Amino acid sequence: MIQFAAIILMMLGLYGLLTQRNVIKIIISLNVLEIGLNLFIISVGYVDGGIAPIFTGVASTNAVNFVDPLPQALVLTAIVIGVGTTALGLALAKNIYQKYGTFELDEMGEE
Amino acid sequence: MKNFLAFVASMGLGVMIILSLTSNEFFPEFGSADVSSRVSQGYIDRDVTEANVGVEFGVSENLESGPANIVTAIVADYRSFDTLGEVTVLFVSSLGVALLLGTAVQGRIKLDFRPNFMLKVGSRALFGIILMTGVFIIIHGHLTPGGGFPGGTMIASSILLLYLADDQFRTKVTSFKVLESFAGSLYVLIGIAGLFIADYFLVNFLDNGVLGELFSAGIVPIIYVLIGLKVGSEISGIIDNFLTEEVA
Fold this sequence. Notes:
The complex is a heterodimer. In chain A, 63% of the residues lie in helices and 0% in strands. By secondary structure, chain A is an all-alpha fold. In chain A, helix 1 packs antiparallel against helix 2 (23-44) and helix 2 packs antiparallel against helix 3 (69-100). The radius of gyration of chain A is 19 Å and the shape is elongated. Chain B is mainly α. The model of chain B has no long low-confidence stretch (mean pLDDT 84). Chain B has a two-stranded antiparallel ribbon. The chains are: A mainly alpha, B mainly alpha.
């Protein structure tokens, strides 16, 4: 049931994307959306009492109760791509600020 | 009015997703996921293409995939081609940042504070420790949590520390570019070597060794070190682009 909190986080990010008019706030909304999605994907693979999917001296055979490793691998991919898109968005924001002197979309294009 | 519409739209979408998940019999309750009925069980048992022989830490030799860290086995072995694409996405985004922010003659951006002597010396002492931790995480990526991506980001964070603590500091950007291209090309070349030695792209053509030893898992640690170098140099390049500006 707790994984629906991740859905709420996603919807919070979507609401921010739809309503905000500030470039930085839009990028932050995108990140909140992405974090919610990542949490949800991770939560799908959780097993009660499961341990991290790494063979060690304690969890030494494949009969151990591991959590699902596949969502974790997929989220590892998603996090890295999220960093790339955030960096690109912030670079665009910096260029916008240098040209217009503001981050607000409504105040642009007046001079 | 517009905010209210957006609120209704996102609420409606959220309720729709939650309702469709709760009424779906294939969607597991939180904590009761059945891993043994999923694809992931094949990754844990190492029997995707070969028969299941049983996996035991420190004993099993030459399994289908060598890393003790199952997530690494998926990221850098079973789905290595996917990781190559992911590294390419990161490369393209760092290229885009360089295109948007790069200028012909670059100098450091003016900071609002002047770092004092203690800050400079202390950050240089910390720099080595953080860098070595990142390198350790990269090298042990197939045995312990972590790997190329977190370790590479850690290396970039040590560079960021130097940038923030010294207002004159700049890295040698060209050498980062060379390192990045070197690591990326070598990743592709290892893949093509697999095409010639065995049958398909990015096949693990080295000996897998004993599960859980440092020198095991064939080409996986090599690929993860290359990924770590590439991610570290790319993110360092992004940091450099953000903290420099055109010199008049």
